[in-house]
Amino acid sequence: MRNKIIIGNWKMNKTPSQTESFLQEILPKIKQSSSVVVFCVPFTNLDIASKLLKGTKANLGAQNISWQDSGAYTGEISGAMLKELSVSYALIGHSERRQYFGETDTTVNQRTVAAHRHNIIPVVCVGETLQERQSGNAQDIVTNQIKQALKDITPEQAQNTIVAYEPIWAIGTGVTASANDAQEMLKHIRKQLNNLYGDIADKMHLLYGGSATAANAQELLSQPDLDGLLVGGASLKVEDFSTMANIV
Ligand code: PEP
């Protein structure tokens, strides 16, 4: 039985002081949640968030991680830096990074390898564009993204890797994939993972992301291959995100 995971991706939102008031308000509301809850906050908020999450059941995540460990890489943040702030998850290859910041399947793979080097659980994001879906290529695109992202990842590491299916046409658009469409792709993803890692695929957590809200969370979460949600917009609101964490 895989437990459920709900991850909030704050993107470039909230200052440290806003983070403090948000977490102070939401933490008591999610105390009873039986799921794994992760807050992926901007780098500048990791310090305050790590202090506030200490001693709670909630976990801290980053929105990226460098593939290098230190050195002349201006603007990058290494796994060791994250680890010292108690970061235990890192989003990798979010479609916004692929679209605006030149992230490629190769760099997604390098970051995934680096995350494991630092015992940080990578949350590898994959997903197709609307055009790719309409032309019937969605599964092939996602298969390729997964194979490349997980190159050189051992079976033991794979078991501690999360794959988030985020169809690009559903992110921040208010258009959610139907529960059936999400399940169909996640089942396909698990099959690909089975080809790569055998039975370990059944232990891996697969998430859906794309305009998930308190209103559609229940239906999405009832799908057999969907082990949790990656939530953007709705994770910025205490009521919405705490409701989702408690549904999970
Ligand atoms: C995301 O950015 O990962 C995401 C799923 O965003 P939203 O929930 O706003 O569509």
Protein architecture, described:
It is a single chain. By secondary structure, the protein is of the alpha/beta class. It has eleven helices and eight strands. It has helices at residues 16-26, 46-53, 79-84, 95-100, 105-117, 130-134, 138-149, 155-159, 179-197, 217-221, 238-247, and strands at 5-9, 36-40, 59-62, 87-92, 121-126, 162-165, 205-209, 228-231. It has an eight-stranded parallel barrel, surrounded by five helices. The model has no long low-confidence stretch (mean pLDDT 97). The protein binds phosphoenolpyruvate. Residues 9, 166, 171-172, 209-212, 230-234 line the site of phosphoenolpyruvate. Phosphoenolpyruvate (PEP) binds next to strand 8.
Ligands (ions, cofactors included)? phosphoenolpyruvate
Number of beta strands: 8
Secondary structure category: alpha/beta
Number of helices: 11
- Describe the sheet with the most strands: 8 strands, parallel, barrel
How would you spell out the order of helices and strands?
EHEHEHEHHEHHHEHEHEH
Radius of gyration: 17 Å
**Helicity range:** 40-55%
Estimate the global geometry from the Cα principal axes.
globular
| Through-space gap between termini | 14 Å
Could you name the ranges where pLDDT drops below 50 across 5 or more consecutive residues? Answer: none
What's the rounded overall pLDDT mean? 97
Strand content: 15-25%
How do the strands of the widest beta sheet line up side by side?
Answer: 1-2-3-4-5-6-7-8
